[in-house]
Design a protein that fits this description.
Order of helices and strands: HHHHHHHEEH
Radius of gyration: 20 Å
Largest sheet: 2 strands, antiparallel
Helix content: over 70%
Number of helices: 8
Distance between the termini: 29 Å
Strand content: under 5%
């Protein structure tokens, strides 16, 4: 495989899996816990963050050689706020119900540590294409994290998925799942699962290394 293709793939997969912002770095917890009471809310917030992250990282990368170090954070915030404003008005135009459901968390994308962190740590040091690919992977990882919580909480808390009933009239919803404690419970369960997967992977690597050492 072409080395540049491998590097591009690595840039993309860093945020999707190896450095997943929700399950590995545990960033952006406010929207992760607050808006994931339904899959629709989770997907909408994830896509809004994706748009802001990819566009802002692309612009930060384009301006990286012209931005004085002393004011770089202020410049990043202005860039991010511009795209957040676009998203804010777009969601209002598409659905006022969704806009009310997401509440202030749309505007709070401005201070989402995932976006500012990518702008400072990666986009400001790399050309536009790698910066945007890395941002896309990170934002898809964030969407996956939000959906993982939103799907579970909606199914258990309301018996629906994207508003479609799954279990019929006899289902007794777990009301706690659509309350704040439910977000912590589901997040904790997913973190345990990812920790188990990572630990299992490490055990397999150690077993292979031990076997190779013994055979040598």
């Amino acid at each position: 495989m072409n080395p540049s293709t491998v590097a591009t793939w690595d840039e993309f997969m860093e945020g999707v899996w190896r450095q997943n912002p929700v399950f590995v770095m545990v960033l952006g917890m406010c929207p992760t816990l607050a808006v994931t009471v339904s899959a629709v809310n989770a997907l909408s917030m994830g896509l809004a963050t994706l748009f802001v992250l990819v566009c802002s990282c692309g612009l930060v990368s384009l301006m990286r050689k012209f931005t004085p170090k002393e004011v770089r954070i202020a410049v990043y915030i202005v860039i991010i706020a511009t795209f957040v404003t676009v998203v804010d008005y777009a969601i209002q135009a598409i659905s006022l119900t969704l806009y009310d459901a997401l509440g202030a968390f749309i505007q709070l994308i401005v201070v989402n540590c995932i976006i500012l962190g990518r702008a400072e740590a990666h986009a400001s040091k790399n050309p536009p294409l790698p910066a945007m690919i890395n941002a896309l992977g990170m934002s898809i990882g964030f969407v996956i994290g939000l959906l993982a919580l939103g799907v579970v909480r909606e199914i258990l808390g309301a018996g629906t998925l994207f508003g479609i009933g799954l279990f019929g009239a006899g289902f007794q919803p777990w009301v706690i799942m659509v309350l704040p404690p439910g977000g912590f419970f589901v997040l904790g369960a997913w973190l345990l699962l990812f920790a188990w997967i990572e630990r299992r992977k490490l055990r397999k690597q150690q077993a292979k290394l031990t076997e190779a050492t013994q055979n040598a």
